[in-house]
């Protein structure tokens, strides 16, 4: 099925501890994301880069939290954009930017899904669960909090200036590829019933076998599916352009298999591409891989892929 795809740039880097993610959206453009999708027969509109809402006089409940005003501004801007796009018939791809942007995109897509009378499911492909609250974070880096925000955990009301009216049910979240979960996050995940498949489980059972039941649940509940793909889901040997590298990530084939299965399911309705830091890349290697993975999500087959030299 051909899609009306809208590219939305979100040059966010305030959620991470190092500079560079603000260059991510333009790196995806330079790596040929639009051309790749158009070659597959899809219509692509590049909506440019968003700007954050200005938020004054806002303080986090925990003094260790960094850049809280910027986080709130970006979340409000992305929440409105995702809420608007989610009510239409387009397929938004949010180009990050660090993973804090997903606070706005996931929450906005959830609001739009609720207006359609359908539940939102989230597939979180990441080395980390990003399930800290503002109180539990030890680092103060807000890219570790977006999934907790979107699932309605307490303490985030100041981010939008109002309570979240349509949180994602944590039991409709599947986190895959994790290799680093803090103790506080582990407790929250268990308490709220989120699905977690770490790399050991993937090694033992296979990523396809683990993904099938989740997709079947989305289909059975007539859900919409948002996919949030972090560069560090991938092994850093094949995707070095990320500031939070954790060894032992998904292989090239595991990642493409996930994308191919998602395409075959026909369930995905929105996508985040996050944590690409071009400053850390090797001649665009990571950006091109993320573009290739997006191509697989939109129907590119194995034997359609060109041979590339780096």
UniProtKB/TrEMBL annotation:
Record Gene3D superfamilies: Ureohydrolase domain (3.40.800.10)
GO BP, sorted A to Z: arginine metabolic process; urea cycle
EC number: 3.5.3.1
Signal peptide range in chain numbering: none
PROSITE patterns xref list: ARGINASE_1, ARGINASE_2
Pathway membership: Nitrogen metabolism; urea cycle; L-ornithine and urea from L-arginine: step 1/1
Residues the record lists as binding Mn(2+) 2: 126, 232
Catalytic activity entry: L-arginine + H2O = urea + L-ornithine
GO molecular function, one term: arginase activity
Cofactor(s) required, per the database record: Mn(2+)
Co-factor: note: Binds 2 manganese ions per subunit.
Keywords: Arginine metabolism, Hydrolase, Manganese, Metal-binding
Cellular component terms per the entry's GO annotation: cytoplasm
Stored InterPro entries: Arginase (IPR014033), Ureohydrolase (IPR006035), Ureohydrolase_dom_sf (IPR023696), Ureohydrolase_Mn_BS (IPR020855)
Residue positions binding Mn(2+) 1: 99, 128, 130, 230
CDD domains (alphabetical): Arginase
Pfam family, one: Arginase
Family recorded in the similarity comment: Belongs to the arginase family.
Name the UniProt record assigns to this protein: Arginase
Taxon lineage: Bacteria, Pseudomonadati, Pseudomonadota, Alphaproteobacteria, Hyphomicrobiales
């Amino acid at each position: 099925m051909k899609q009306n795809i809208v590219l939305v740039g979100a040059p966010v880097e305030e959620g991470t501890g190092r500079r560079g993610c603000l260059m991510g959206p333009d790196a995806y453009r330079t790596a040929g994301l639009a051309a790749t999708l158009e070659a597959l027969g899809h219509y692509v509109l590049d909506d440019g880069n968003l700007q954050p809402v200005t938020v004054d006089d806002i303080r986090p409940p925990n003094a260790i939290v960094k850049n809280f005003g910027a986080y709130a501004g970006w979340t409000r801007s992305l929440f409105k954009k995702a809420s608007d796009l989610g009510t239409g018939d387009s397929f938004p791809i949010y180009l990050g930017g660090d993973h804090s942007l997903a606070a706005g995109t996931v929450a906005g897509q959830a609001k739009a899904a609720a207006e359609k009378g359908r539940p939102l499911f989230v597939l979180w492909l990441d080395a980390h669960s990003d399930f800290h609250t503002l109180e539990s974070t030890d680092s103060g880096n807000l890219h570790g909090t977006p999934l907790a925000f979107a699932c309605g955990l307490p303490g985030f009301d100041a981010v939008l200036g109002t309570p979240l009216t349509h949180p994602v049910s944590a039991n409709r979240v599947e986190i895959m590829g994790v290799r680093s979960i803090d103790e506080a996050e582990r407790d929250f995940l268990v308490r709220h019933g989120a699905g977690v498949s770490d790399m050991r489980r993937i090694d033992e059972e296979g990523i396809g076998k683990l993904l099938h039941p989740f997709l079947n649940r989305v289909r059975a509940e007539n859900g919409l599916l948002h996919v949030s793909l972090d560069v560090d889901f991938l092994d850093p040997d094949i995707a070095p352009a990320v500031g939070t590298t954790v060894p032992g990530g998904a292989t090239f084939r595991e990642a493409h298999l996930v994308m191919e299965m998602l395409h075959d399911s026909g369930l995905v309705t929105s996508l985040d591409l996050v944590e690409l830091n071009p400053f850390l890349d090797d001649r665009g290697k990571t950006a091109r891989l993320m573009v290739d993975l997006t191509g697989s999500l939109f129907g590119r087959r194995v034997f359609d892929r060109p041979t590339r030299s780096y």
